[in-house]
Specification:
This protein has 19 helices and 14 strands. It is an alpha/beta fold.
Length: 450
């Protein structure tokens, strides 16, 4: 497929794309009140002056971008920031955490008309794209508008690489639109270069620089009082198939750990009812957080089907299983529980955080579990060996802290490009020199590509 063919298809299939968007709205996967933003309509007036645009696909990418927001505002105090995401959960969470000079809008769907409406209104001076959100129309239209584009915290899984290899005439012009590609590992760098990216540098995983997840102290105190001294563990950000494994592990552990409480925080809270049915079918008692049901002495499993409360549960639990890793999803962020002093367990599928897990493994800071039996055995061992649990907690916390300096490395690479927000007339850095001097302007990037 070529870019021209992709553009033609997204234009011809516009009615089906709109129908798909409507279907997502009906099932709650789109924000009902702000659905027009996905069609490129205005969410708010463009502020005067310079505007930096940051795009992140969903919750994890959005949270990892928050330190960049602070960094941009620090070196450009007068700039405004537009922050776009594509999911309801990320939109609601990020809107609550953005500072005063930043605002959230949903990213337009990848139709030319919607994309052009969006760019015509916002007219960003620079754009930062988090991880691997590569929408052809949005990227190439941004490029053709002369907006400098920077790929940040990029990653490229083996599956993604294999998919893009089938469409070289589509991916190459997309990647060559980026003035700079900052990626998580040397492996990611090699894959981006193979697909056509220029000026690629391996910097590390920006998620290591995210601040600890927030927590409602009153809610934490209430839960601690309810749970008291019961043995407890947490399964965080679980995906389809993992809750069943966690429930099985709970039943196995319950015989030797009287009063055991298992907390499940599903990655997608709308699945709570199907999880609840599975729990009840196994003759276990469940309390559901979204319904305000308290944890009682009889509660076997606490189903925390709410958004934005992982910081609360990481502070509550000593032992955490990181979801998305027993199934072939690629794993959720192990740095978040490690940063809050948890003993971290994960399954075999952690390719979304490959470089992070390598470092954790090198420091013996996590435990890899192969299956549900291994999960139950490992949790049981940690519940009954406080010293081993404490050592694992300390190793995880130290490893997370050791990686926190990655933000400085990112800002050192990005600052020459971000200065164009204040001084648009200066010459840009020479990518071939690899230095950190000068700035890139919209006009210069546009002329260079022409």
């Amino acid at each position: 497929m070529t870019l021209a063919l992709y553009r033609a298809l997204t234009t011809i299939l516009a009615p089906l794309i709109n129908l798909y968007l409507l279907t997502r709205r009906i099932v709650g996967k789109e924000d009902r009140e702000r659905i027009r933003e996905r069609l490129g309509h205005l969410g708010a007036a463009r502020p005067p002056g310079s505007l930096a645009w940051i795009h992140a696909a969903s919750v994890g990418e959005a949270i990892s971008a928050l330190p960049l927001v602070d960094g941009i505002l620090e070196i450009n105090p007068g700039v405004d920031i537009l922050f776009t995401t594509g999911t309801v959960t990320s939109g609601r969470l990020i809107a609550e955490r953005l500072p005063r000079r930043a605002r959230h809008q949903y990213v337009p769907i990848d139709r030319l008309k919607c994309v052009r409406n969006f760019l015509r209104h916002w007219r960003p001076d620079v754009s930062l794209w988090m991880e691997s959100e590569l929408w052809p129309n949005l990227i190439t239209e941004t490029q053709e508008s002369g907006v400098p584009m920077l790929l940040v915290n990029g990653r490229m899984s083996r599956n993604s690489l294999d998919r893009w290899r089938r469409f070289p005439r589509l991916i190459e012009p997309i990647l060559q639109g980026f003035s700079l590609c900052l990626v998580q590992s040397d492996t990611d760098a090699a894959r981006y270069r193979e697909l056509g990216a220029k000026n690629v540098r391996s910097v590390g995983n920006l998620k290591a620089a995210s601040p600890p997840l927030p927590c409602n102290e009153e809610a934490l105190s209430t839960l601690r009082d309810s749970i008291s001294d019961r043995p407890m563990w947490l399964a965080a950000s679980t995906h389809v198939g993992e809750e069943a494994a966690v429930i099985t592990a709970h039943k196995s552990l319950n015989a030797d750990n009287e009063g055991l409480l298992t907390i499940i925080v599903p990655r997608h809270p709308h699945r709570a009812e199907e999880i609840r049915r599975d729990i009840v079918s196994r003759q276990l008692s469940v309390a559901i957080r979204s319904r305000g049901e308290p944890v009682s002495a009889e509660t076997d499993i606490y189903l925390a089907d709410t958004l934005g409360e992982l910081g609360l549960f990481y502070r509550l639990a000593d032992i955490v299983f990181v979801g998305g890793s027993l199934v072939c999803h690629g794993g959720q962020n192990p740095l978040e529980p490690a940063r809050l002093g948890c003993a971290v367990l994960h399954g075999p599928h952690m390719h979304n955080f490959a470089s992070v897990i390598v470092e954790f493994a090198r420091r013996s800071a996590t435990v890899r579990v192969a299956d549900v039996e291994n999960l139950a055995a490992t949790v049981g061992a940690l519940l009954n060996d406080q010293e081993s649990c404490r050592r694992l907690q300390e190793a995880a916390s130290d490893t997370a802290a050791a990686q926190a300096g990655v933000l400085d490395a990112y800002m050192a690479e990005l600052t020459p490009y971000l200065k164009c927000l204040m001084d648009k007339g200066s010459p840009g850095p020479d990518p071939s020199a690899g230095g950190d001097t000068g700035v890139v302007t919209k006009g210069e990037v546009h002329r260079a590509r022409a």
